[in-house]
Design a protein that fits this description.
It is built from eight helices and four strands. The relative contact order is 0.17. Helix content is 47%, strand content 13%. The longest helix is centred in the first third of the chain and has 15 residues. Helix 2 packs across helix 3 and helix 2 runs antiparallel to helix 5. It has one domain. By secondary structure, the chain is α+β, with helices and mostly antiparallel strands. The protein has a four-stranded antiparallel β-sheet with strand order 1-3-2-4, with helices on both faces. The N and C termini lie far apart (33 Å). Pfam families: DUF6630. This is DUF6630 domain-containing protein. InterPro entries: DUF6630.
Length: 183
């Protein structure tokens, strides 16, 4: 069973923030917000409807962070999120980020140095985040308190909005490369 997270926010404020995050990250996919709100409002119904998705996470009953998990899974199902293991290969990360619907229109990969491909997963993700920022885009981790990195792409100008909404919802977001990252 995954570790759970209990947001210390009012349910109505968390609900509104989750809906706003879904709209921010998936503006062309209103079903993302529908799934997230279903998980928030009717967790048993959501678990019943999306049991196949949740099986891979070891979830078979509602957990405190179910709406956050629903957001991640709904974004992933629509090609708007890539989830990386803590020891993912740089080429696999690159391939998955390239396939995201939310990838930047300017190709950030030409900015990479050869030695960056040899970095461990977390450091490589921060390098990706730095290079994405150079193109006006950003990468963020929707933290689920596990050893994976659920990564979304968005416009760099919207990162503070995402951070504020996630805080209102009671969940952590980490922006890759925003602090210079690690090497």
């Amino acid at each position: 069973m995954p570790e759970t997270h209990t947001p210390d926010v009012a349910p109505d404020d968390a609900r509104a923030a989750l809906a706003a995050i879904a709209t921010l990250l998936a503006p062309a996919h209103p079903a993302v917000a529908d799934e997230v709100l279903r998980a928030h409002d009717s967790p048993h119904d959501y678990v019943s409807a999306f049991g196949d998705r949740l099986d891979g996470r070891g979830i078979d009953e509602p957990v405190d962070n179910l709406a956050w998990i629903a957001l991640i899974d709904a974004l992933d199902a629509r090609g708007l999120l890539a989830e990386f293991d803590w020891k993912e290969d740089a080429q696999e990360i690159r391939a998955q980020l390239r396939s995201l619907e939310s990838r930047p229109s300017v190709e950030p990969w030409v900015l990479f140095e050869d030695e960056e491909a040899l970095l461990p997963t977390e450091a490589f993700l921060h390098a990706c985040g730095r290079h994405y920022r150079e193109t006006g885009a950003a990468l963020a981790v929707l933290d689920i308190e596990s050893d994976c990195y659920p990564v979304v792409g968005l416009r760099a100008a919207r990162t503070e909005e995402l951070t504020a909404l996630a805080a209102r919802a009671g969940f952590p977001v980490h922006h890759l490369g925003a602090d210079g990252g690690r090497r």
